[in-house]
Amino acid sequence: MATQSCVYDVPMALDSTLSRTRGLDPSSAMERNNQHLSDCLDHLLGPMPTDDFLDTFLPLSSQENKSGKARSRNAFKDVPVSWDAFDEMCSRLLPALNKRTPKQARCPGFVFEVAATRSLHPSEPGFMKPGICCYASDNVAAVHNSPFESRVELGYAELFIDMQPDPMDDSFIDPPSNNNDKMRDSHEFLRLVEDDPINAIRTLGQHVAFVTEILARQFRTFLFSISLSGSSARLLRWDRSGCVVTEAFDIRQDPETLCEFLWRFSQTSNAGRGHDTSVQLAPPDEQSLFLDALRIEVRAQLELDGPAIEEAVREHYSPGHVYTIDISRQDLPASMDTTRRYLVSRPVISPLTLVGRGTRGYWAVDVVTRSVAFLKDTWRLTAVEELEAHTLQRLNDLGVRHVPLLAWHGDVYESTDSSERPTARDYQRTSTDRVRSASWLCQVNQRKLHISRRRHYRVVLGTVGYGISRLRGAEELLHAGYDVYVAMRDAFDKDSRVHRDLSVGNIILVKHPDHPVRKGYLIDWEVSCKVDDAGEAREVGRVGTWRFLSRRMLHPDGDELKHTFQDDMEALFYVVLWCALMYQPHNLTLEELRKIVAEVFDERVPFMPGIVRGGGGKMANAMFRSYTSVMEFGSKHLDEWIKTVADFISSGDEWKGEDEDKWSNPEHLDVYWATFLQTHTLERDNRFVHVLRAPRKDGLPPLASKPPSHHLHSGHTPPSYTSARPKQESRKRASSEPNADAEPRTTKRLRSGRAHVQQTADRLFKYTRSPSEGRRRSERLVKKREEEVRVAEEKRQKDRAGEKATARGKSRGGARVVAAGTASKTTRTRTTSETGKGSSRKPRVRRRAASHGA
């Protein structure tokens, strides 16, 4: 069927050094996979019957001609029930997947190839790739010509197969076939994470990581994948609302299901395979137009000249990767020109999580006006009545200062060449929510499902700038921070609105020709909310960026609380404090800085199943100044501001005593901040970058961190990956602390303050149930599973006895290839080379060995 072309291998956002992809540091891969696993547990639906899955997500057309479909009978008879050697498994599976004759094929137009071994470190998390990837035939050469250290496979993958050695390595457990609906409701579909958390991270967590990266490296609306545990398979469909998982089927005994899936997959359109066809590759003349406009804007924003401009442009541009995006407004009369075309290239924001908004952010160029704008590509909740564009337009009309200007916006629909207005069915939307009430659903990890309906949406802002993390000095930090506070107050006073997501990522610095210091703008008003007469948000619940949330919203009951303006005020303080700690000179060692970040900003404590809390460090600071009291910033005026505002926060608490309340009335902070900026001269170019990256645990050399030269030309130091304090401070500390092994004085004070606040934690957080109760519940469920696992294990041993002997005989004497992703109880294969050249001891291969995953 005729379809529009689709775009592959799109650039991702770079980190501040412009040398690495942001957010994909291999050294933190296990931590990311753990978070992926945790995030997806509320969004897994299954087990869906395979026939229903195919008819719902890959329906047949009425004119379907199956004459070209290869026969399915005995298609996978050579695939073992379980396997020890990954390369042997692939040698049996790939011929069946790629089967074709002059007139018939298993999946015409597509090729399946091993991806797991195309890596410099195929068994190391962060470097791993899926076991097998499916590519369009035209893209195979591009994959072959790419270096092993690239991630091109994920940029071209149409779908992937995640492979584990044995059916017992399946992340899911189907209910008995004779279960009624009531029994299915209580059946646990997910193999208990508490039973083997490391294996869960290495298998399901890694599977989600593959999906997330593919959705970031391609323009997609959804993605199919296959989970293959031994010969037991499941089909999965992923979008921004979650994942639908089928019931398990054995490809040896039931080859027709997989064959039918692959045939339908090959026959549907590009959009039917999950591609966003509203994005197209720009022609050469428009690519040149984009680059010229981008250079002009970068020169104006960063005040650069010469070669530094070209390096700064790299943040927004990748040669050969300029795309056209047409945005059509649905709120204008049909008689008007409702469509504008924009050019984009490398995003400054890439989506690094699966479920949710999946936001990408670009510097974009309007093809007609040639002006540079900011294009935000996101998946909005359809349940939210007010679009972000409508909020911005209202704020613009009301004269709210320091918020971006609205340029254009619109929902995304599939057919970009249609002359007719789209209907609701034409819009790109999630489909996981279509089956959230199905009768076949089982519970997942004893948690309540959270499946939302989302629609693809784009909004264009007429204001562009650089994130506040690119600040040049204390002057820019506090002036931009005050600009944001003015925007907050204007929105509250003129529109009764709170932002609810104050964070480092939602403040940009914009250069105005008539101002020597860049202005701060508050962006991303998508989750903002009107307040009631009591000053509380009309919408209940915790939203925003965890790291910067107020103490109150980090309470275990935060999901049941209503946001207030004071919560936004406190979040803004933490943004300023974070920027000061990361980008200003101070007295803290790297270890002390990591400790403060972990306890003040990143604390996440399991409270009850499915519930976490934080804010202990923030509470400690509010009560005893346990953290800010030990900080000494190189800028004495910045140090004064931080300590004073920390006192303001404390004065607003109910246990403050008789001190004056300087927090509940926003006017106090406004007057203090404005007066402070008028009476204090702050440093303009004292940027100093502190890096939190922990030493690598994989034994590999540190990643390169060559700074972009335009940072140096723009008057501030680039992110550094060596020291946590200026050299003179390091020498001073060395002379005053002869015992290098002694605990630093600051660390002792941090520990002491932390212990003090723990004494009042129960009263402050008002715990109603013991966290150990959740652990006891998990233990009971684990015991319940033990008997099920024992029975299944006995049956499995009988079924695979013959296969096991054959597989071990064939794998003797050679080093097996470790595939991406590892199954439970991972062990390394001992080969002849490991035991010694002259050793007569045969290689010891353990069946539940490291599998392919990434």
Automatic annotation (TrEMBL):
* The Fungal-type protein kinase domain, residue ranges: 209-579
For this UniProt entry, which residues form the secretion signal?
none
* Amino acid composition bias (Low complexity), ranges on this chain: 814-838
| InterPro entries registered for this protein in UniProt | Kinase-like_dom_sf, Pkinase_fungal
Annotated coiled-coil positions are none
List the biased-composition ranges (Basic residues). 839-854
For region Disordered, the annotated ranges are 698-854
Q: Where is the composition biased (Basic and acidic residues)?
A: 726-735, 772-806
For this protein, the parts annotated as crossing the membrane are: none
Domain of life per record: Eukaryota
Q: Which Pfam families does the record cross-reference, listed alphabetically?
A: Pkinase_fungal
Q: Which PANTHER family match?
A: FUNK1 11 (PTHR38248:SF2), FUNK1 6 (PTHR38248)
Name listed for the protein in its UniProt record: Fungal-type protein kinase domain-containing protein
What is the source species?
Dichomitus squalens
